[in-house]
Design a protein that fits this description.
By secondary structure, this protein is an alpha/beta fold. The longest helix is centred in the N-terminal third of the chain and has 34 residues. It has 9 helices and 14 strands. Belongs to the pyridoxine kinase family.
Length: 323
């Protein structure tokens, strides 16, 4: 009898303990849920760009920085290369247009692509892939109701007067811009001149070309990553009819992937500023980019014992403190 009473006593205590646990954890859950405000939810972005196994270009230069800054990044890879071309050789292949279409349509089956805050398109290896990207993204952005992502286009064509891609890509980019659905474009000077068919030689020609481009293509915001005027590099921004520039503190070195990293940083800044760019936000982006590039330069300087002319791999992870 005594053993039975002790068992009932213990069972009663266990029941009470379980009940208290349920009340406690229910309170914690409800308190935590109440603290989650819409502005604290994860920012989401779909990035369509190149992929390399080694190095930091394309999606490899975009994904980690944005994740570190609080983004949920989904990446579609338009290439699958061992490394970027800056090494002098590479192996792997560009994604086929049908493969990119399959991936995008597969996404449609598991989520609403309109749930993304931003869609970012970067390097595409050929006109076929870019045409597929255009068709699929336009379909998403032409939705008439609900949330519509902002489209950021980095028209990766080339630099220093030389194309990296086929000339057949150029008219496809113009088709993309002609949709009127692009919110922000981030070309370098060569890419902007190629798409605008206007040469920038001074501030007057720069302002005329940028405003004409915005009016022609109905692009709300333009950020030209680097424009050289009077032997000085400037980042040129345009939004709502206003144009501004910020000087770039140049490091005497070439950095593979810095354009992709720049676009990722601009995307974050653009979102955080209510889908807008300002002189202050661009100055902050340039400061962050400079710190990462300087860190990478100093790393190679210490490693090689002399100042590098080219940094093939930006030290994005090691320099994360600057993000």
């Amino acid at each position: 009898m005594e053993a039975l009473l002790w068992y009932l006593f213990e069972s009663s205590n266990m029941l009470k303990l379980k009940t208290l646990k349920m009340i406690f954890f229910s309170h914690i859950h409800n308190t935590h849920a109440a603290q989650i405000h819409p502005r604290h939810t994860m920012k989401s972005l779909l990035s369509i760009s190149s992929h390399v196994v080694h190095g930091y270009v394309g999606n490899r230069a975009i994904t980690f920085p944005l994740q570190y800054m609080g983004w949920d990044v989904d990446a579609i890879n338009t290439t699958n290369y061992s490394n970027h071309p800056g090494y002098g050789s590479l192996q792997g292949s560009a994604s086929a247009p049908d493969a990119i279409r399959d991936v995008l349509q597969g996404l449609h089956h598991v989520l609403d692509l309109n749930s993304y805050d931003l869609i970012l398109t970067g390097y595409t290896p050929n006109a076929g892939v870019l045409s597929v990207v255009k068709d699929e993204v336009v379909q998403v952005l032409q939705k008439q109701d609900g949330k519509i992502p902002h489209w950021i286009v980095d028209p990766v064509l080339g630099d220093n007067g030389r194309l990296y891609v086929s000339e057949k890509v150029i008219p496809v980019y113009k088709e993309i811009l002609s949709t009127g659905l692009v919110s922000l474009i981030t070309p370098n000077q060569f890419e902007f001149e190629t798409l605008s068919e206007a040469k920038i030689i001074d501030w007057q020609t720069c302002e005329v070309a940028v405003k004409a481009f915005a009016e022609n293509y109905k692009v709300g915001s333009i950020v030209i990553s680097s424009v050289e005027i009077d032997n000085q590099l400037h980042c040129v921004g345009y939004t709502d009819g206003n144009i501004f520039s910020k000087p770039i503190h140049k490091i005497d070195c070439d950095f593979n992937g810095c354009g992709d990293l720049f676009t990722g940083l601009v995307a974050n800044s653009y979102y955080d500023n209510g889908y807008n760019i300002t002189p202050e936000s661009i100055a902050s982006v340039l400061s962050t980019l400079h710190n990462i590039l300087q860190f990478s330069f100093d790393f190679e300087l210490q490693k090689q014992g002399q100042a590098p002319k080219v940094v093939k791999d930006i030290k994005i992870v090691a320099a994360k403190e600057y993000l």
